[in-house]
Amino acid sequence: MKKAKILTVTLNPAIDYSVVVPSFRTDHVNRATGGRRDPGGKGINAATITAGYGIDTTVTGFLGTDNSLIFDNHFKTCGFRDEFIYVEGSTREGIKITDPADRVTTDINFNGFDIEQKAIDEFIFRFERLAVHHDMVLMSGSLPEGLPADFYAILAGIAKNADLFTAVDTSGEALRAAVESGTVDLIKPNEHELVEAFGDAGPADLLSRVGMVLLSLGEDGSRLYTADAVYEASAPAVDAVSTVGAGDSFLAGFISALSFGKAPDDSLRFAAATAASKLTKYGPGVSIENPPGGYYDSIKVRRIS
Q: Which residues does residue 214 pair with via DSSP β-bridges, in sequence order?
């Protein structure tokens, strides 16, 4: 079987500054017990997973030249093919406050840079060139200033013409436009994002416009809606240390499994195992000490429709 090539798109990446603060409280002096800076952005997090599974992975999007070194080093370490458009300025930074006592993470996200039309045109030209050399594309995250709300829909149309399997993980108007384009194979919202974008419409209602809906339910597990069936996966017991990147790992695990030729229900189990492993470590990628294989058999997947 041909080995798949995956392209991930991160239009609004960030440097994640993760801080560990036990019993974090607002309006209070808090003391951190640890901290780290990691290259972030949903597509980059996903690419770390797919490349870790041995899949030929290319990354693209926009990066600022002023603080790109942390990304460059990560790309080289992971073996990504770097096809980012580098623009003037700094890539945004985000603060992730992890409270191990209450097992919650608080995100503080800054706005990204403004993207000028010249860079947008260059990116579309590059995306068209890359699309014909890949089998799957995963487009993730928010849109930076300067890009229209239907930008993922535009890219999905290009991907469709190149016969790529297309997955989109975003929210709000960007998610709604992508689905309404009718050119997306898979979306991965959580319950809040689903309601925000589509109101009372449930996952099954979207299947006339999108191939599959991969719905993350947090501690309640996950569901996969396809034209033929609905599958539900349990959430394994995990000693979680950070939720940062868990959803991205979940989607990347699912895409990876599909690229290996696994059936949708097995791919859902593989995705849940990948996310469980990611929850047990700080930073991108799965845990070496708690690998996905250690959770795979404990995850129950059943067909509910």
A: 224
